[in-house]
Amino acid sequence: MARLIAVSINCRNEAARQTFEEIVSRRRDYLVTKGQGTGAADMLLLELDEFRPQQTFGHIRELLGASPDLEVFLTASRTDPQVLLDAFRVGVKEFLPQPLTRQEVEPALVRFEERFNGRMLATERQSGRVVSVIGARGGMGASTVATNLAMSIQQVSRQEPVALVDLDLHGGDLGLFLDLRPSQGLKHLSKDISRLDETIVRSSLAKHSSGLHLLSSGYEGFEEVAQAPGSTMRVLGLLRSMHQHMVIDCGHVLDPAVKESLDCSDQIIVVMTLSLPAIRRTKRLLDVLRMAVYPSGKVGVVVNRYSNDQKDLLTETESLLGLPMAGLIPNDYGTASEAINHGKPLTIMASKTSIGQWYLRGTGPLIDDKGSVGGNGHGKGVEKKSSFIGRCFSTLGLETGSKPFVA
Ligand SMILES: Nc1ncnc2c1ncn2[C@@H]1O[C@H](COP(=O)(O)OP(=O)(O)O)[C@@H](O)[C@H]1O
Ligand SMILES: [Mg+2]
Fold first, then answer.
1. What is the pLDDT of residue 386?
2. Is 334 in the pocket of ligand 1 (CB under 6 A)?
3. Both 183 and 108 in a single domain?
4. Which protein residue has the closest C-alpha to ligand 1 atom 5?
5. Are residues 309 and 374 in the same domain?
6. Who has the most CB within 10 Å: 62, 142, 191, 324?
7. Measured in angstroms, how far is the CA atom of residue 140 from the centroid of ligand 1?
8. Domain boundary at 124, 145, 175, which?
């Protein structure tokens, strides 16, 4: 999972703080958090209290006890060999003497990145699968697909909670789909990611009687979207480490936060209908997604509200988009609307209807365990990971090849 490295700085010496922040910010993939907390930080630059070093060491012990993966960089104006020895004994990873210089800081960051990437690979192997669902435009059925997909996985997984995330920052209403009271959700959690930890994330989840966990968006749709860069990915990363399966309703706007979600997903499902405006928007959306150069098979398209008299239009659409559809969801407006109005998923309320059956049976081939939509791609992690974020940061000339994402 591509993600930014969250850095927290706790340093009284203003020059040291500024130099470190400057060097770190120039490197790719770092994000300096605003708060003083270390809940979700990967790295902390901490200044030694030279009069009371033991107090600093006690603090470090506590921090590492709570977050074993946190790396502490210690900085001080004096270098006392005994103090250094004690510092490394309590778990400090790097010592940076003041005044901080590029020659000292950069090699320390390179060493950090090597350790961090190793940890990420190990975590990625263990962590859950993430599916993002995005509508080609509003009203396509993205929320219906995300909710019922999550619910059908939940009904199979039973014991293990599945996470459903409402990432519609322009008025998410998944709480209504499941008759759950929306919590402050993502908006609240993203405000200060330096304070984030599993307990805080867990307390923000609404729990459905099926076992499913919902993180609501917290956005009503009338306010300005204020997701700090990297914060969505951070919240999703924590949720992912707590759930084997996660489904994200991305709405239909390619906000920066939605791009973060797409980047860190194993699979992306674009929901469309066979109407001309939807076909045009889907073509455009696929072109934009191609620019992220995702691995083949990561992106798939499902047609919602499909009826059998649309066969010819379906064939034409597939040839226009240059890919076969990963799923055809039957059209049944009455049942779909009734389910929403009752706050019940189709997989429970209408399990015997064709649409309910589709969600109960049709999602297996849609999402395979190898990280491809429609089973037509390559395995997870086999190909080089790419991203919108990677492309923003990548130097000119890198990753410019337009590679198809569906085999
Ligand atoms: N398979 C379907 N057949 C008919 N109507 C559907 C189907 N799936 C969803 N709908 C209806 O489409 C409308 C929009 O669905 P919604 O999931 O809210 O879309 P989005 O999240 O993309 O805006 C709702 O009224 C819903 O009942
Ligand atoms: Mg929606």
1. 60
2. no
3. no
4. 333
5. yes
6. 142
7. 6
8. 124
Give me ligand 1 centre to Cα 331, in Å: 9
Q: Which ligand is nearest to the CA of 172?
A: 2
Q: CATH code at 71?
A: 3.40.50.2300
What mean pLDDT do residues 169-179 have?
A: 93
**203 and 249 assigned to the same domain:** yes
**Number of the ligand 1 atom closest to the C-alpha atom of 137:** 22
Residue 100 lies in a domain: yes
Range with the poorest average pLDDT among 23-32, 105-114, 170-179, 389-398: 389-398
State percent of the chain over pLDDT 90: 63
Confidence of residue 171 (pLDDT cuts 50, 70, 90): confident
**Residue where a domain stops, chosen among 61, 90, 124:** 124
Whose C-alpha lies nearest to ligand 1, atom 27? Answer: 337
CB 196 within 8 A of CB 243: no
Q: Which pLDDT value is given to residue 6?
A: 87
State the distance from the centre of ligand 1 to the C-alpha of 314, rounded, in angstroms. 19
Ion ligand 2, residue ranges at CB < 5 A:
143
For 21, the domain range is: 5-124
Is residue 308's pLDDT more than 60? yes
Tell me, using a 6 A CB cutoff, whether residue 336 lines ligand 1. yes
332 lines ligand 1 (CB under 6 A): yes
pLDDT band at 341 (very low <50, low <70, confident <90, very high): very high
Output the CA 403–ligand 2 centroid distance in Å.
30
The band of 314, judged by pLDDT with boundaries at 50, 70 and 90, is very high
Bigger pLDDT: 65 vs 365: 65
Whether 164 is covered by a domain: the verdict is yes
- Choice from 144, 151, 342, 363 to test ligand 1 binding pocket (greatest atom count within 8 A of CB): 144
Q: Within a domain: residue 318?
A: yes
Measuring CA to CA, which residue among 57, 64, 58, 47 is closest to residue 83? 57
Same domain, 89 and 175: no
pLDDT value at residue 170: 92
**Residues 215 and 237 grouped into a single domain:** yes
